[in-house]
Amino acid sequence: MYVRNEPPWFAFLIHPRDLDDLRRWKGSRLLRQYSDSDEEFVAKATTMEANVSGEVLFGFGSARGELIGVMRMPHQVMGPGGRSAVAEAVAFAVDRGAKVIGLGALTAPATAAGKGVVRHIPSGVALTTGNGYTAAVSRHNVVTAVDSLGLNRPAHVAVLGATGSVGVPASHLLVREGFDVTVIGRNLGRVRATLGDLDGEAAFADSLDPLQKADVVLVLTSETAALLRPPDVRPGTIIVDVTQPQNISAATEAEFAEHGVRVLPGGLVHIDRYRSTYDFALPIPGAAFACLAETYLRAREGLREHSVGAPRPEVALHMEQIAGRHGVRPAPLDVTSPLKGGRR
């Protein structure tokens, strides 16, 4: 793609989520032509340095963001060398002149929600995970799902991945909504240490067992041990999957539909006049990630403080207010179509 000389308002880090994603990458066609197999293609592509992989535009105004590609597959982002690859991409974004840098997909957990790379950020440049606004949008998604069920009692909401940087503020916001909340993490001790202020207001768990009682499951982790299967939830449950890469892939979603479980894509928003030159292949046409939207909003508002680690619930609510001022809103969820398989 043509790379502009003028600095962007912001930069947003992305990485290929799967092989199809990598095939959509700018310049991948030539690599595929000179590769004898998918394995060779991936091996070549993942030796590339950070690059400008696309841009996001907002009408005909000057607001512009660059998508900085971290050329690593998910297991590489989360494995040895992943943090350094993200740090190199952050440095590249700084060199490009971005004043706000957002961490997309697994670049946030790979860097301890940004805390592992923030010390390398020069003065005047802000780093954000975008997880404050993502938590607010996730809360909105859950409320929409609960309302569609028409329950005559408080809904039981399970948060899977509750100790993460989206899970902590989202769990607090859902408790404030009055739901019967169960927060789930890998280790019960860590759940209590991270969310101890919810003791007495939410149930704590370190297994998938509570999902059998949940009306709505908010999924915030795609770790291997937390990948869901249809038997993990009861028929009639609604799953809101916010993860990237997705916990529940489009290929397995039909199995959930056959089990009577609706899977909804969470954490997505509409931004007025938004256009991306990179195809994220999102299930909702014209949608964007909430974490990308927060990066844009911080640039538009001129916010220059870092937002790393788990944001406080008040930060999530503040970002929600800012979003309302700038034409950013949660993408509507289809909670009424018959279950046919395939992401709705």
UniProtKB/TrEMBL annotation:
Name this protein carries in UniProt: Shikimate 5-dehydrogenase
Signal peptide per UniProt: none
Pfam families the UniProt entry points to: Shikimate_DH
Gene3D superfamilies assigned: NAD(P)-binding Rossmann-like Domain
Boundaries of every Quinate/shikimate 5-dehydrogenase/glutamyl-tRNA reductase domain copy: 155-252
InterPro entries per UniProt: NAD(P)-bd_dom_sf, Shikm_DH/Glu-tRNA_Rdtase
